[in-house]
Amino acid sequence: xxxxxxxxxxxxxxxxxxxxxxxxxxxxxxxxxxxxxxxxxxxxxxxxxxxxxxxxxxxxxxxxxxxxxxxxxxxxxxxxxxxxxxxxxxxxxxxxxxxxxxxxxxxxxxxxxxxxxxxxxxxxxxxxxxxxxxxxx
Length: 137
Fold this sequence. Notes:
Blueprint: H1 6-32, H2 34-43, H3 49-69, H4 73-98, H5 102-125, H6 132-136
């Protein structure tokens, strides 16, 4: 590990925290309130709510931690990028045409697009100096 620029290093760590927080929060919340998580999946009309809830919690919690800690960051970011795209398509894009709250749905889609862009950045450039990935090199 080389000596880095502390403000830049802290900025990278803060960015990973921001990228991972929503997924960690969502995964932990769904794990503690499984009935609400299953209801959310069922509301989307998806089959196998118990299986999908379990996979969602694992994906959000494990990959969220990977991004936060900077451990196998690119893999964690890639999985969460895919998760975000699929979740956006299933939960928001299909409602744009039919939902009376079209503007709100579009805003959510654009917010998810920004999250995808952040994950692309992590995939391309990695976690930065203050990460397990960096310390293992």
